[in-house]
Design goal:
Strands 1, 2, 3, 4, 5, 6, 7 and 8 form an 8-stranded mixed beta sheet that branches. This protein has a 6-stranded mixed beta sheet with strand order 10-9-14-13-12-11, covered by helices on one side. Helix 1 crosses helix 3 and helix 3 packs across helix 4. A hairpin with a 3-residue loop joins strand 1 and strand 2. It folds into 2 domains: 154 residues, Nuclear Transport Factor 2, Chain: A (Roll); 121 residues, Nuclear Transport Factor 2, Chain: A (Roll), CATH 3.10.450.50. The protein is built from 8 helices and 14 strands. With 290 residues, the protein is of the alpha+beta class.
Length: 290
């Protein structure tokens, strides 16, 4: 068994740590899924903290529940439980240097008689200057033991062409555009949640909300929010965008209000540039602020 695990680690390390010149042309997203799977295998073999230190960027952000530096957090708060997960939804940028995965996780708390918890994770990955995938953002929400199998969706980019930008000022402007899109989303949410969802959610959007398995599709997400009977407001804090420009994320603060009672969250939105140069969210996660 140990030999098979070591062999799997070697194979996944080779896949995740190499530029994958030939394979990328046919299945770019496969290398991203391999990087995530390697993270999980390494965490089982070496422990989550050591795996995180090996694979995360120095400025990687984790939500515990507020956004903090991941390296600093896990040095001060070593993970005592056993965490396992698998990617179910993934997409990679045209520039082959930025992507995200999400999917179900299981956490066994070894400090509480091996109590088992379930939920969904979200990871954003970037390639470093050596072409190796590194974890840039990690977050999760919890829910009851799932009753449905995950819906697998691994998406390669449509087309290969994109505009190359070298100017730092221009790259910052591109991030500012995403941030402004999230600001506009927030403005419309204040006026009318339903209009905002119509304007900014893709038809295949994934909503990761605490206490619930993934809600997939604009129609299902709108029905979910309507059933909750809450007013959602949000305010962005940070934006980041792929070099090719068509994928990005934002995170910030959100509040749901019902019967005069406010509940606070940190949110993460993954954005994609659609035809017509308009930004839509393909995934939203809401992390409760305890």
């Amino acid at each position: 068994m140990k030999k098979s695990i070591c062999a799997a680690i070697f194979l996944l390390l080779h896949i995740a740590g190499q530029p994958l010149r030939a394979q990328v042309k046919t299945d770019k997203v496969g290398q991203l899924v391999a990087a995530e799977n390697y993270f999980m295998v390494l965490a089982k073999e070496k422990g989550f903290d050591k795996a995180f230190f090996k694979l995360a960027l120095e400025d990687a952000v984790v939500f515990r529940p507020n956004p903090v530096n991941g390296i600093t957090y896990y040095k001060n708060n070593p993970e005592k439980g056993i965490l396992s997960w698998e990617p179910a939804f993934a997409k990679i940028s045209k520039s082959d240097d930025w992507g995200f995965t999400s999917g179900p996780y299981t956490y066994r708390d070894t400090t509480q008689h091996d109590a088992v918890y379930y939920g969904e994770y979200l990871s954003v990955w970037k390639k470093n200057d050596k072409g190796v995938w590194k974890l840039a953002l990690d977050a999760g929400i919890s829910h009851k033991k799932p009753v449905k199998d995950p819906q697998l969706t691994f998406l390669n980019p449509t087309g290969e062409k994109f505009m190359h930008q070298r100017s730092e000022a221009r790259l910052q402007q591109r991030e500012d555009i995403v941030f402004s899109s999230d600001k506009l989303y927030a403005t419309i949410l204040k006026a009318d949640n339903s209009i905002a969802y119509n304007e900014f959610l893709t038809d295949e959007v994934h909503l990761l909300f605490p206490g619930y398995e993934p809600i997939i599709g604009k129609k299902a997400v709108k029905a979910f929010w309507a059933k909750q009977g809450v007013k959602l407001t949000s305010e962005p804090v940070k934006a980041d965008r792929a070099y090719s420009g068509e994928l990005a994320f934002t995170y910030g603060n959100a509040i749901t209000t019902k019967n005069g009672i406010n509940t606070s969250y940190n949110y993460i939105r993954v954005w994609e540039l659609q035809p017509g140069y308009k930004w839509y969210t393909v995934l939203e996660m809401y992390i409760p602020v305890k």
